[in-house]
């Protein structure tokens, strides 16, 4: 069998190679991300992108009409839905859907992929709640929570496609635990997400970023601990990704 260390080291090298291309996000996700990073983008541009995909437009309308938003009046159009949700929430919804449909899917590792998907989504929503509760500023908390373990997902996709004989997830667990922050950060960088996102993703088991205490890093750290404590971990034992670096001087 292929040793776990060889597998993950090889994949990290591939991810960092100039010719590597990560799993492609759907066109609509790429367009929304590009617009959300453009200070001059207009709501009309976002509406045109959403309206180009009838299935996704229906989902946006359904969310905007949910109990969380309907107290402020009825939603009759995509334009009203986008205005009601706001650009930040719209972007987060798009990325969550894109990952659920195109990344957290792997027949060979189906069980762990589903647990990883649930863990990532729960961590993202908890990160938003923690940030609101403690007044942590920053628009990327949800994305950091959603993407903090994305390196595990893409590693499993690559292993399922390229490695023979295919190792069990259990044989990879320890090495993935050590390598996944770097893998996740590398992928987030390739998707051209904001610097703040890949900085926090790279150190999401600590409450420091670049050697200094960071409120958003602490938020993700706490959100993941809460998710694992609630039984929504990546593995049933809750060992993978359930502990931050306890040797760090910035521990909580």
* Rg, nearest Å: 18 Å
Tell the overall outline.
globular
Count of runs of 4 or more consecutive helical residues? 12
> What letter string, H or E per element, gives the SSE order?
HHHHHHHHHHHEEH
Structural class, from helix and strand content?
Answer: mainly alpha
Uncertain spans, ≥5 residues at pLDDT below 50? 241-252
Q: How many E strands?
A: 2
Q: Give the rounded overall mean pLDDT.
A: 85
Helical coverage, percent range: 55-70%
Q: Strand order across the biggest sheet?
A: 1-2
The biggest sheet, with number of strands, parallel, antiparallel or mixed sense and barrel status, is:
2 strands, antiparallel
**Beta-sheet strand percentage?**
under 5%
Q: Termini separation (Å)?
A: 39 Å
Outline of this structure?
This protein is an all-alpha fold and 252 residues long. The protein has helices spanning 4-16, 27-36, 43-51, 54-64, 78-85, 87-102, 110-134, 141-147, 150-162, 169-190, 195-201, 215-229, and strands spanning 208-209, 212-213.
Characterization of the model:
This protein has helices at 4-16, 27-36, 43-51, 54-64, 78-85, 87-102, 110-134, 141-147, 150-162, 169-190, 195-201, 215-229, and strands at residues 208-209, 212-213. The chain has a two-stranded antiparallel ribbon with strand order 1-2. The protein is globular, with a radius of gyration of 18 Å. By secondary structure, the protein is mostly helical.
């Amino acid at each position: 069998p292929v040793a776990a260390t060889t597998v993950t080291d090889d994949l990290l090298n591939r991810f960092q190679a100039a010719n590597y291309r990560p799993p492609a996000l759907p066109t609509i996700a790429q367009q929304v991300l590009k617009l959300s990073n453009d200070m001059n983008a207009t709501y009309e541009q976002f509406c045109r992108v959403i309206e180009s995909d009838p299935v996704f437009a229906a989902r946006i309308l359904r969310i905007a009409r949910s109990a969380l938003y309907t107290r402020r009046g009825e939603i009759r159009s995509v334009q009203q839905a986008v205005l009601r949700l706001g650009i930040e929430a719209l972007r987060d919804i798009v990325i969550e859907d894109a990952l659920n449909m195109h990344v957290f899917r792997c027949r060979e590792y189906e069980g762990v992929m589903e647990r990883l998907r649930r863990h990532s989504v729960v961590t993202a929503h908890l990160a938003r709640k923690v940030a609101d509760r403690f007044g942590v500023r920053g628009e990327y908390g949800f994305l950091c929570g959603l993407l903090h373990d994305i390196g595990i997902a893409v590693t499993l996709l690559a292993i399922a496609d390229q490695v023979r004989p295919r190792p069990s997830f259990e044989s990879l667990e320890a090495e993935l635990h050590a390598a996944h922050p770097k893998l996740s950060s590398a992928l987030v960088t390739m998707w051209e997400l904001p610097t703040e996102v890949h900085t926090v993703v790279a150190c999401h088991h600590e409450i420091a970023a670049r050697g200094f205490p960071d409120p958003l890093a602490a938020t993700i750290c706490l959100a993941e601990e809460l998710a694992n404590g609630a039984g929504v971990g990546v593995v049933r034992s809750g060992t993978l990704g359930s502990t931050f670096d306890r040797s760090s001087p910035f521990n909580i």
